[in-house]
Specification:
This protein is an all-alpha fold. 28% of the residues lie in helices and 0% in strands.
Length: 92
């Protein structure tokens, strides 16, 4: 949020954490950025997150260590002949 406020010209923005920095689910993340969702809005948000990580070194002069290497999840559902309906909305 502070990032977007600063882009809009806000200054003196302060972010407060309820606990330790990244003490919630973000701090427990393995670092993956999900790119397949059931709604177009979530797909668009994920794509923007990817663009932001790519811009960070130049825009914020911070290297987040982002390396896009990919991943693949496979599963079998004995009750279906093909992919589940959630996969038809698109992959970024």
């Amino acid at each position: 949020m502070a990032y977007h406020l600063a882009l809009q010209g806000a200054s003196g923005v302060v972010m407060l954490e309820k606990d330790l920095i990244c003490s919630g689910s973000t701090g427990r993340s393995a670092g993956g950025i999900r790119q397949q969702f059931a709604t177009e809005l979530n797909i668009r948000l994920s794509l923007e997150a990817l663009r932001m990580f790519r811009r960070m070194p130049e825009e914020l002069e911070v290297d987040p260590g982002f390396r896009q290497v990919g991943y693949l999840f496979l599963g079998v559902d004995a009750g279906r002949d093909g992919p589940s309906s959630g996969t038809n909305v698109g992959v970024a």
